[in-house]
Amino acid sequence: MCIMASCLSPNWSVFDIDQSQTLQVAVQEAHARSQPLAIRGGGSKTFYGRQTPAGDLLDLGGHRGIIDYAPNELFITLRAGTSLQALEAQLAEAGQMLPFEPPHFGPAATIGGTLACGFSGPRRPYAGSARDTVLGMRILNGQGEILRFGGQVMKNVAGYDVSRLMVGALGTLGVLLEVSLKVLPRPDSTVTLVRPMDPVTAIQRMNHWAGQPLPLSATAYDGEHLYVRLSGTGSAVRAAQTRLGGERLPDAEAAAFWVALREQRHVFFQGDAPLWRLAVAPATPPLPLAGQTLIEWGGGQRWLRGARDATALRQLAAEHGGHATLFRGGDRRGEVFHPLTPPLLAMQQRLKAAFDPRAILNSGRLYATL
Amino acid sequence: MPEVSPAPAVACAATRRRKVPTHMSASPDRTALLAELQAALSADAVLRGAEDLRPYECDGLSVLRELPLCVVLPVDREGVRAVLQICQRHGVAVVPRGAGTGLSGGARPIRDAVLLSLARLHHIIAIDRENRTARVQPGVRNLAISEAARPLGLYYAPDPSSQIACSIGGNVAENSGGVHCLKYGLTVHNLLELDVLTATGETLRIGSQALDSPGYDLLALMTGSEGLLGVVTECTVRLLPVPEHVLVLLAAFSSVEAAAESVSAIIAAGIIPAGLEMMDRLAIEAAEDFVHAGYPRDAAAILLCELDGPAVELEERVREVETLLQRHGAGAIRIAEDAATRLLLWKGRKAAFPAVGRLAPDYYCMDGTIPRQRLAEVLGRITAWSAEYGLRVANVFHAGDGNLHPLILYDANAEGQLHAAEEFGRRILELCVAVGGSVTGEHGVGVEKLDSMCVQFNAAELAQLHRIKHAFDPEGRLNPGKAVPSLHRCAELGAMHVHHGQLPFPELERF
């Protein structure tokens, strides 16, 4: 029941290209010359991370194609440069999906870039993150060695979990070549409920419901309305709908709402003002912050706009068990991610050196010294 | 997942003894080390006499045993830190140990190393109802977390068969799974934050109380690192709502292939069961003799399928699954809706290891994973090898996630049988790798599967794993010699993958 790339829809085999060898040579040469590389998939997420001095472009966009897809085994193996759109279309054909509902941030988005950034969408608190979905990877380390960790099976505890370590590392530890991901069946039925609510109650409700056996698949609060998405079998969704109450959004409008939220096209995200992301313990009450806060992930992910006192914001996030990221815009030459404690930073620097001793892979994109 | 071991977790049965090291006499250095440990901890927290050390000489893999230099039992993080710092000053290695239920020798003592038991760090610090988390010390038993959370309608999902005894710190070290991991994930999917002490006693706070944390995902790296990268002194786990309703189907099949096909059919229908377990005829007979769960003795294979969710959903699902099972040749199907029957059906599966243990003086438990579609082929080869070696094999299979546990029956007292069982086991694991799986799904590498790691990883990959270890523990003093084989060992074994006819690291020291 294993579907090889050649058996998939015809356009796959035409465009499937394995560029591992070319990419390996490029990294080996860069390593020999200590030449920094800037890794690029589709270029849809160049806004993210720190601004770094230009390195030689290492383009993964051509290294694409689905290598192995076994719907009944719930996994897919593909090259990192495969477009996220094409991947999701292929999964949808088999009635499946990526559990973490990744944002694309542009039609050129690749699966490799998505995992390197570690981006997850609205379903994340209820179905796991990008990292949770990873089963295995083939990577190129900073010496240009092709290494394989993990595999295509759900359970695999042989060796350290290097493939999940790659997620969110922004390419600073290795170039992602191939990834194996866990996939899930698409839910039979989805309903979005909306109702006006104050922020204190909204956060309480989202967390109270998350502690009940309900088929939640997304939650958001825009400052005025609480949005709750339920996904599962028809009967389970109907039962939960009756229990939670609220107005049901028409399906097309609901789908558009969650896509706009995920892709940051919702009105909250418009304009050039800096965008901050706070990740906190989900039940954290509304934070004393000026301006509007957009809340997702049952309270665990909170968005803010405008120039902010970074130190104060980070302290506030840390007090509530989390961290703050300058997600888009603002000054990207300084640190955009939450500062690490000195022992943690030192450990991560040693880890970086363990993978990329000459610091050629996207160095400085995550932190100035990584 | 450390399965319940046939031998008591901490008392090693004498019949399985392979070697009994003579205990070294006290050198001046050792005397100073012991004095410092005793000064730093309470008087009863340092065990040194052979009779006190004996209960710690092995973990659940009782065939491998060794007496440690001493056993220390600190009661808090500062005690753990003191042990690590004293050992660093003396250049002595440290082997961390939770409940000792692991099945791969990961907590087996090392003769000149201090065995650091985390068993006395056993407090549940806080259960946060609103955020649905539990903050616990590493020695807390897995099941104790769910028991404490239960009044709030919450539980901790990973449930290794040894959950009544195994500790959460050990679960983190092994990335334990359980029968429900297809739907609810492994330990790595259910952890939020760890407080870790490095080999030098430095504190690292890894992860956060939020859903992610800045920098590299050390939470993933630390989980399953078998005590080689750091010692967990506290962890925050995610709690889930207890499902509204649970039921179990038991289906009997006249062939293993039919059972495997019905598993594929269930998943193809878009159903993710909470648990999906398969047993073959010998395992069925053993379990039935042992716990009388009412399994059909004439079946070639049985499938246990647990569904959970809202009652309205289960009503539909159970009919769907029943139809699929029948269509794929299931004979009798029993459905257990009440807790008592459900537990009885599971009891046979959960007792499968000790049940098989009654069939022969010894058994060797394998833990490979395979893509499920290769199951029939792999079982066919195992049957053929079983005849070749003259050793019986019972198969227990986590069918949902491809984790196969062949149990090779042997008698350690019969000339050559242990060796034959080990060789047989190695061939099974090599086959698992060859069909695209792994040498260990949940029991870990420990000491037991070091050689098999040489088959799964090439030299460059192993060297990368060693460099990770070096980044955390440059002196190599935490659980040395476990989990990742030296390149030298693999080269001597002749099993290492060699790409393009040469070792990728000709210049590298063969450690």
From TrEMBL, chain A:
<keyword id="KW-0285">Flavoprotein</keyword>
<dbReference type="InterPro" id="IPR036318">
    <property type="entry name" value="FAD-bd_PCMH-like_sf"/>
</dbReference>
<dbReference type="InterPro" id="IPR016164">
    <property type="entry name" value="FAD-linked_Oxase-like_C"/>
</dbReference>
<keyword id="KW-0274">FAD</keyword>
<dbReference type="GO" id="GO:0071949">
    <property type="term" value="F:FAD binding"/>
</dbReference>
<dbReference type="InterPro" id="IPR016169">
    <property type="entry name" value="FAD-bd_PCMH_sub2"/>
</dbReference>
<protein>
    <submittedName>
        <fullName>Glycolate oxidase subunit GlcE</fullName>
        <ecNumber>1.1.99.14</ecNumber>
    </submittedName>
</protein>
<dbReference type="InterPro" id="IPR006094">
    <property type="entry name" value="Oxid_FAD_bind_N"/>
</dbReference>
<keyword id="KW-0560">Oxidoreductase</keyword>
<dbReference type="GO" id="GO:0019154">
    <property type="term" value="F:glycolate dehydrogenase activity"/>
</dbReference>
<feature type="domain" description="FAD-binding PCMH-type">
    <location>
        <begin position="5"/>
        <end position="186"/>
    </location>
</feature>
<dbReference type="Pfam" id="PF01565">
    <property type="entry name" value="FAD_binding_4"/>
</dbReference>
<dbReference type="InterPro" id="IPR016166">
    <property type="entry name" value="FAD-bd_PCMH"/>
</dbReference>
